[in-house]
Write a structure and sequence with these properties.
Layout (H helix, E strand, L loop, with lengths): L1 E8 L3 E8 L4 E5 L5 H9 L3 E6 L5 H4 L2 H6 L5 E5 L9 E3 L4 E4 L2 E7 L8 E9 L2 E7 L2 E2 L2 E2 L7 H12 L6 E4 L4 H11 L4 H15 L7 E2 H7 L8 H14 L6 H13 L2
Parallel strand pairs: 3-4, 4-5, 5-6, 10-13
Antiparallel strand pairs: 1-2, 2-3, 7-8, 8-9, 9-10, 11-12, 13-14
Helix pairs in contact: 5-6, 8-9
Length: about 260
């Protein structure tokens, strides 16, 4: 039996643990801290054998070397050419990572950082395809553009938007309520957003994660995936007119949404 469990870290990070309870093996995604991972593995009698890294930021790789040093033959899979120097199995977009019978496609998703990749498998885990997307796509949001351009990030998100609607999106932060506040500010008449915010607030009130999300819901509600939605375009055009920004292309619309969130 396979399970995917969030391991909370720092203030709002999620480190993901994909576990095979028949073999006792575990794959860990973006371990920014080692101690929470150690505790989780010990509590569930799991042995780490693979670490997936989506990008080089310290809150995603800070625990990698410590965990790997304690684990014989642990694979550290991450983007080729990454500024993070601890990767033992570098991969390129278009490549594959195989773990316990699952084949993950490596997707290039630059924008948040230039080395950012995501891992997707269409082999169902608990009946759903799985996307580990780091800081590229959040629940009703996307990552800040620390290194890439709006055009790069929109293209990256466009590639994720093509994945199956029932894909579960395992992002790396609990940013949902903040993202929804902006989304509802941008689209105050969107009833689906209002209802979803209430459901997410109820989860957080019980200290439950709002992730993973469902990609079909993201396509329907996330403004950062709706650069071609007339309702989003209309708001973006007004925003651009008020802020002296261009509004001629899909990239302009996306850039406006990102600018709006950055200054919200």
């Amino acid at each position: 039996m396979l399970t995917i469990t969030p391991i909370p870290a720092f203030n709002d990070n999620y480190i993901w643990c994909l576990a095979d309870h028949q073999t006792g093996k575990a794959l860990i995604v973006d371990p920014g801290q080692a101690d929470p991972v150690r505790k989780h593995l010990a509590e569930h009698s799991l042995a780490l054998d693979t670490i997936l890294v989506t990008h080089h930021h310290p809150d995603h790789v800070g625990g990698v070397k410590s965990l790997a040093a304690e684990t014989a033959d642990c694979r550290i899979v991450g983007p080729a050419g990454s500024p993070f120097g601890g990767i033992t199995h570098p991969v390129h977009p278009g490549g594959e990572v195989i773990w316990n019978g699952l084949t993950f496609q490596v997707l290039g998703v630059p924008g948040h950082t230039l080395d950012h990749i995501a891992f997707f498998t269409d082999t169902p885990v608990n009946d759903h395809p799985v996307l580990f997307c780091g800081d590229t796509l959040f629940v009703c949001g996307c990552g800040r553009l620390f290194e890439g351009s709006p055009a790069q990030m929109r293209e990256s998100l466009a590639s994720l938007r093509q994945l199956p609607d029932n894909t579960r999106v395992y992002c790396a932060h609990e940013y949902t309520l903040a993202n929804l506040r902006f989304a509802r500010h941008w689209l105050p008449d969107d009833i689906a957003l209002t209802q979803f915010e209430a459901a997410c607030q109820a989860n957080r009130d019980q200290n439950k994660p709002t992730v993973p999300s469902v990609l079909g819901d993201e396509k329907r509600m996330n403004p950062f995936l709706r650069w071609d939605d007339p309702a989003v375009i209309a708001v973006a055009q007004t925003y651009c007119a008020n802020n002296g920004l261009p509004a001629e292309s899909a990239n302009d619309v996306f850039a406006a949404i990102r600018h709006g969130k950055d200054h919200f």
